[in-house]
Amino acid sequence: MQKVLETLVNLQDIDSDLFQLEETKGDLPQKVKSLEREYQQAKTTLEAKQAEKKSMFSEKTAAEQDAAAAGEKLKKFKVQLYQVKNNKEYDAITAEIEVTQNMIDELEYRALELDENMQKLEEDIEAAQETVDMLQKDLETKKQELGVKLGATQEQEDKLLAQRENIAGKLNTPLMRTYERIRQARHGVAVAHLEDGACNACSSRIPPQRAMEIRMGGELHMCEVCGRILVYVPETESVNSDIEEK
Known about the structure:
By secondary structure, the chain is mainly alpha-helical.
């Protein structure tokens, strides 16, 4: 059991070092993710507006073509108007002229309306494009900053991860699950030390008999207050001596 406890201490040391490396990145990873979301949302908005403009242009073109075709029909009806032989034919052609003229008016009005809407939409598209360009520039800058920081720590991080994998492989699965569960619940610190008869993570006093059992290292002990795994290392000042309750 003593070797198991020493392995847990070594594992906690490595996880603490990895945490410190993660801290050096600051909030850059979160900023990059946030900017990526904003950029994608802005890009989606821009594409939607561009698609809307394209649809309006197609509708406007169709309205103009239909108006032109109706105009040709109107010309024919007007020519026929002078060729009628009776009042019945005259009334029929007059009705067709009226219907066709109304259709032309409606189509021309719709084309003008679409043209105005497209002009307004173009302003929105320009603003959306500016937003996309700004976010893209900010995103590239933040990615470069993050890349520099990652480059400075990547080698050390890879080394620590390899060591962690090697050490974690020495612990059985149930114990690793317990360790990970406590670490996640206690802000990355699953192992605390017995110092001066107390848990150095939460400062709670440990009964003398239990403290003696912890020093002997014959079995796994948990702090009854913070729930961390308690271990005793003779030279505690060299390992996790400054753990604070979080």
